[in-house]
Recover the amino acids of this structure.
């Protein structure tokens, strides 16, 4: 039903809720993620794709700033390692795990709440 060589968003917007649920429950492997076209307009398509280099330019300086602040607030290198590593490791594990679970369960995969027999909302499906 879906032609992956054509823009996906317009195709998804034409689906019924039942078709959409079937579509998302059967993942497809695509070799080239850069080849995925979301929108017909190339400019809109490029603007709506996440660029990880941009995310790293924001996140990496914040992480390094917090590590530097933690080092500045400790007495010596040994104290820094003794206190920072367990708290940072636990924080990353707990916070990252929670954020991943929350975003995937409640924000990204709302199709589980769709009524298959209800009228579809093209904007919600997109």
């Amino acid at each position: 039903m879906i032609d992956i060589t054509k823009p996906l968003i317009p195709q998804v917007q034409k689906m019924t809720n039942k078709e959409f649920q079937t579509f998302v429950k059967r993942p497809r492997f695509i070799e080239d993620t850069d080849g995925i076209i979301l929108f017909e307009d190339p400019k809109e398509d490029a603007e709506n794709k996440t660029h990880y280099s941009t995310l790293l330019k924001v996140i990496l300086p914040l992480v390094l700033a917090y590590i530097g602040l933690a080092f500045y607030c400790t007495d010596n290198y040994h104290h820094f390692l003794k206190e920072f590593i367990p708290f940072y490791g636990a924080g990353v594990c707990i916070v990252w795990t929670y954020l991943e679970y929350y975003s995937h369960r409640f924000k990204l995969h709302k199709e589980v709440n769709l009524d298959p027999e209800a009228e579809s909302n093209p904007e919600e499906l997109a």
In short: Residues 77-108 form the longest helix (32 residues). Residues 25 and 125 are 14 Å apart (CA to CA). The chain has one domain: 8-125.
